[in-house]
Design goal:
By secondary structure, this protein is α/β, with parallel strands linked by helices. It is 34% helix and 21% strand.
Length: 441
């Protein structure tokens, strides 16, 4: 029996696809082992969202070959798509599989082993890429379970048509392609039958779900959510990252009528300055974004609103950065993911003048991280002495006591004394204090 190891880099979509590839390998008779162990096949699901992601992808490919020089090292995904010519020269890589070809992992491996059986000289590189911008096919990957036994991510969409000026993803993932709602329903029902209480819908540009369907099979994100809401066994539906423009009054009102929807919304922002947003090619203003947050807070009780912010985008002067700081504090987020702008060759932003020095990016990032910490603490404290529903996930010991750790519907982490509890059940508790900076008890 051959041994295979996988390593995932990047987003939740990548994580889903890695789970799907692991399932394919198990079904084909491979024994899955840790990436730290010696294996016959190493699969690295790469990321290319930043230059740092590229570097990490290369590092993991080289680490695999160093672990076992005779192993077959498979580079998969976005970095393969964006840096194919570079990878062709990399002696650590035996097989290159681009996006929309991961479903073919097993036949690709079988063909590679047949072609190289008994060879002692250098094996020929096996390449499997398509023109990702031309395909209209949604890649057929499926899962029936995940490493997390309480929460399951379901990929429902791939690709992006937005072309933000800083982003390489439309070039590595292609145009919007949606998964048929019947397939999503079937997978969600399978996961519910396997005991998963919470599902998280994810995609490269989740808000675009269904826009590529023919009129005869029209479905949008709200329609899909309504279908999934009817599946017995699913207690919670959580949504991945959304574009602000989807938050219309009708959309928000409809979500609020679905009790399984978690009031936890990640609305991508990127900047709190309108001039910066224009240069980023984001298709909304700060006023429109603030209105979306107002709609959510009018329809839900204290919803958790989280976001992404890029600091040091080309041309971001002190006045623009100051506007961003003020806007972030006015909105009051539960959590913010702060990223220093990373110049990405192949994007419009890479050609812009007024690139910001790294030292200034670092200073601005630290300022926003301090704001984020204070806002996040304030939001968590707002849950103290209130009734909270917690999905218990794992048991751990802290300060000499045993707890089950779980999350509320707003994704606040809460520790519940173990007593007679067990994982994957919903309990109602009233947290009284902060156990750590991030956990209530």
């Amino acid at each position: 029996m051959r041994k295979a190891a996988l390593h995932n880099l990047g987003c939740k979509v990548n994580a889903y696809e890695s789970e799907a590839m692991a399932q394919l390998l198990r079904q084909a008779g491979y024994e899955l082992v840790s990436f730290r162990e010696r294996a016959d096949v190493y699969v690295v699901n790469t990321c290319s969202v930043t230059n740092m992601a590229d570097r990490k992808s290369r590092q993991m490919l080289h680490r695999a070959k160093k672990k076992n020089p005779s192993a077959v090292v498979v580079a998969v995904g976005c970095y393969v798509q964006s840096a194919a010519e570079e990878l062709k020269q990399d002696l650590a890589v035996d097989i290159m599989i681009g996006n929309n070809k991961k479903q073919d992992l097993i036949p690709i491996l079988e063909a590679y082993f047949r072609q190289n059986l008994g060879k002692t000289e250098k094996r020929e590189l096996s390449e499997h890429l398509i023109e990702i911008g031309d395909t209209k096919e949604y890649e057929a990957l499926h899962i029936s379970g995940t490493a997390d036994h309480t929460r399951a991510f379901i990929k429902i969409q791939d690709g992006c048509n937005q072309f933000c000026s800083y982003c390489i993803i439309p070039y590595t993932r292609g145009r919007v392609r949606s998964r048929l709602f019947q397939e999503v329903e079937q997978e969600a029902a399978t996961l519910a039958a396997a005991g998963y209480r919470e599902i998280v819908l994810t995609g490269i540009h989740l808000s675009s779900y269904g826009m590529d369907f023919l009129d005869s099979e029209k479905e949008n994100l709200l329609g899909l959510i309504r279908r999934l809401h009817q599946i017995e066994g699913i207690s919670r539906i959580r949504l991945g990252s959304l574009e602000p423009r989807i938050m219309t009054e009708d959309f928000v009102s409809a979500l609020a009528k679905l009790p399984k929807i978690c009031p936890h919304f990640h609305l991508s922002l990127q900047s709190g300055c309108d001039e910066t947003l224009k240069r980023m090619n984001r298709h909304y203003t700060t006023e429109e974004y603030a209105h979306c947050c107002h709609l959510l807070r009018s329809a839900f009780t204290n919803p958790a609103i989280t976001t992404d912010v890029i600091v040091g985008f080309p041309g971001e002067n002190e006045a623009e950065f100051a506007q961003t700081k003020i806007f972030l504090q006015q909105i009051g987020f539960y959590e913010m993911h702060i990223f220093k702008y990373s110049l990405r060759s192949g994007t419009r932003a890479a050609q812009m003048s007024d690139q910001i020095p790294e030292s200034i990016k670092t200073i601005r990032s630290e300022e926003l991280l301090a704001i984020e910490k204070a806002m996040s603490m304030k939001y968590r404290q707002s849950a103290l002495n209130t009734l909270q529903e917690v999905l218990l996930e794992e048991e751990m010991s802290m300060n000499g006591n045993s707890y089950f750790i779980g999350h509320t519907r707003e994704y606040i982490k809460i520790a519940v004394p173990s007593r007679n509890h067990q994982p994957n059940i919903l309990v109602e508790v009233i947290p009284k204090k902060m156990l750590t900076d991030e956990i209530l008890v």
